[in-house]
Each structure stands twice: as structure tokens, then as C-alpha cells.
Amino acid sequence: MVIPFYSSNIEELIRNLKTEASQTGSELIYYLTYNNPDEEKKLVSEMIMKGYEAVIVIPNYNETLTADYYRHLIPGNTTIVLADNTMAGSYFKYVIQSYDLGVARAIEYLTTQNDGNLLLVKNEDWRGRNLLYEFMDRTFSDTIQTNYPARKSFSIDNARELTFEFLAKTKIGGILCCTDAESIRVLGRIKKWGINIPSEISLVSYGNTELTEYFEPPITSLDCQYSEMATKTAELIKKGKCTGLLEQHIVNPKIIIRKT
To answer: Is the CB of residue 83 less than 8 Å from the CB of residue 232?
Structure first.
């Protein structure tokens, strides 16, 4: 498995993939690329040459930099499955999330909790272009503009940019965080400022790892369905031994209501 970075969300996916691998007598090994497309391509090519049974890739955040590589890749007996992120183009075997549906479900929940405008908190610490956050940001603003025209949408790059003055000035009533770690940082700041959760500001996190489940208060989250993603990935690998047919799966995130 080739991953661009390490996070609680990816940790959860790895845990589920290890379970799937052990059930077939296989071993899951993962490699970090630090969001480097050249390193990603180098690792995938090396593993194909070594005859790995399968390579699961979570592409770097600017998938356009590797899309052409995968379109022309000759994997031999190695099954290549792309997992998560936005998948630039539709030429590959992949298991991804419906991020637009996840964002829409978060907005629907936030607008039922209280009045006020809505804020998207990203986690923009990676070099280069980030297609995933661009997509989520665009979906966030378009959905609010279309379905909730009385509200305004805002976005910031990370929790460090969040201030009490910003919340007051923009009249934020609901926040969606792109990662569980960022949601904990946001919630900590809001609690420190004496703002009531969720009556004054409601909060949703994207991930639903144990960070949000065991935090106090437990955070309402979009469940990425990592168990289903892992199962579908394992199915693609198994089928890859028998057929080269293109097969793609889109997993729908579910909202888990807790105390924020």
C-alpha cells in the first residue's frame, strides 16, 4: 500500500485492510511518499517489477500529476487498485468515497441545528495543489448557495486560522472539518472561548475514527465506511487474478450523530 501521508483516517483504512489481508493469508505493507508523485510512481513501478500480488495506492493530493502514469501502466500480474481521493479521470480500478454526498449530508445536519452561516475547515499543510480539498470546498459553497441561499459559506485552510473574532464577524453557526484531528482542534478552541456546542455552533467531522468517538464531547461525524472500502478493495484484488476488467466502487459516507 502506497500512501501520501499518515493520518488517523488513513490509519483506520490500513487497519481494515490488514484484516482483509490476513483473512487471505497475505501481508499488508505500507510506504509513505510524503505527497510526492515521483516517489509514488517509483514505488509502484518497483513493486510491479518485484511481482507483488497487488498494490493499493492512495494517490497524492494532485492526482493529475500521476493520472497519465496509471493510464499507460502495464502492471503485469500485479493488481493495481486506487483508493480514496477524487480519482482524476475514470480509467482505473478504484474504491473511493462520495465526498459530495458526504459534504451534502453534513450541511443538511448543520442547518437543522441552529441558524447562522457555515464554515469549512480544511487541513492545508501539503505542498502543491490539493484536488480533494478544492472539490470539497467547491461542493460546500455550491450546495449552500443552491439549497440554503439565506446562509453564507466560508472556508479556512486549517484550525490555526480560527479566531473568536472571525466566528463573531462571520456569524458562524455550523462547522464542517475535513479531518478528525482538525475537528478536535476546532472543538478545543470553541470550548476555550465559552461557546456552547451545539446550541450556538454545531460541528461535524469527516472521518469517524476513534478520535471523534472517544473525545469529550463525542463529535458528530461522517463515517467514511472504511470497512466497506477495505472489503471492496480486497474483492478487486481477488478478481484481478482472473480478469482485467475495469471495476469501480463508490462508497457512501453516513452521518453519525453524537453531541456536537
So the answer is: no
